[in-house]
Amino acid sequence: MSWNIFSRFTSNAPKKTVLSKEEEAEFNREVTKIEVLDDATKRLYKDLKKSMEAMATLSKHQCRIGHNLAASPVLNTEPDLKSLEMISKSVGQIEEHTHELNSQTTKVMVEPMKKFTLIFPNIYLTLKKREQCLQEYTRCQVKVEKYEDKERTGQNLAKLTTVAKKSLETAKESFEKINSELMKELPDFFEGRLDYFQPCFEALIKSQIEYYTKCFKIYAELAPELEYRETVISDEDFEDQIQQKMADIRALSIVVDD
């Protein structure tokens, strides 16, 4: 992610800290892994949605081409081209399978990923609470140290024992509780992504295999109907034929420029 989870909460934080560099570094590593996971999940979610939209668009255009070919007057006048009617039927079948694949993708990947992304805001709220507890803990520690450095008069000792130290104990207890929970649950959550997503990816791959197998079968059945029954000509001869037919069309009086 492009932002730092601590950036919103550290502007007024005391310069001193009750944590060692090692403790803070260990915690930051766990937070970074969560941030990377959050970003990767969101990007994958968006890519899946784009992929589904692209497949639906491709299928839609294939159907349009098939329907246009089926409605073409050429098919009604040329017996040799009647087999092209199979295209409309085939692309219609493929459109149905594409719709099934997208529905299955939504069920096994998109919806689970959407639910997974909803967990992160709660994690960040807990991280914010932990940062606030750390700031309070540090402030109380600094306050106790100030009283300890002052002249040990009765009034100062009373404040130290009755107010400052009690506040410090409360702040320390609150911080250690939430910090301990996070240091246990952040790694557990990160590792748990494997058990959560593996069945999703397996189901997606199986759905794709089924989809492409069906499409292959449709095209395999369609191919013989579209085979050119005369002798196969070279690309050069085919290009010459196209150019000659285009020249014949341009020679017609109805297309001659004035």
Automatic annotation (TrEMBL):
<dbReference type="GO" id="GO:0097320">
    <property type="term" value="P:plasma membrane tubulation"/>
</dbReference>
<dbReference type="GO" id="GO:0051666">
    <property type="term" value="P:actin cortical patch localization"/>
</dbReference>
<dbReference type="GO" id="GO:0006897">
    <property type="term" value="P:endocytosis"/>
</dbReference>
<feature type="coiled-coil region">
    <location>
        <begin position="130"/>
        <end position="185"/>
    </location>
</feature>
<dbReference type="InterPro" id="IPR027267">
    <property type="entry name" value="AH/BAR_dom_sf"/>
</dbReference>
<keyword id="KW-0132">Cell division</keyword>
<protein>
    <submittedName>
        <fullName>Bridging integrator 3-like</fullName>
    </submittedName>
</protein>
<keyword id="KW-0963">Cytoplasm</keyword>
<dbReference type="GO" id="GO:0015629">
    <property type="term" value="C:actin cytoskeleton"/>
</dbReference>
<dbReference type="GO" id="GO:0005737">
    <property type="term" value="C:cytoplasm"/>
</dbReference>
<keyword id="KW-0717">Septation</keyword>
<keyword id="KW-0175">Coiled coil</keyword>
<feature type="domain" description="AH">
    <location>
        <begin position="22"/>
        <end position="224"/>
    </location>
</feature>
<dbReference type="GO" id="GO:0051301">
    <property type="term" value="P:cell division"/>
</dbReference>
<dbReference type="InterPro" id="IPR004148">
    <property type="entry name" value="BAR_dom"/>
</dbReference>
<keyword id="KW-0131">Cell cycle</keyword>
<comment type="function">
    <text>Involved in cytokinesis and septation where it has a role in the localization of F-actin.</text>
</comment>
<keyword id="KW-0206">Cytoskeleton</keyword>
<feature type="domain" description="BAR">
    <location>
        <begin position="12"/>
        <end position="235"/>
    </location>
</feature>
<dbReference type="GO" id="GO:0019904">
    <property type="term" value="F:protein domain specific binding"/>
</dbReference>
<dbReference type="Pfam" id="PF03114">
    <property type="entry name" value="BAR"/>
</dbReference>
<dbReference type="InterPro" id="IPR010504">
    <property type="entry name" value="AH_dom"/>
</dbReference>
<dbReference type="InterPro" id="IPR046982">
    <property type="entry name" value="BIN3/RVS161-like"/>
</dbReference>
<dbReference type="GO" id="GO:0008289">
    <property type="term" value="F:lipid binding"/>
</dbReference>
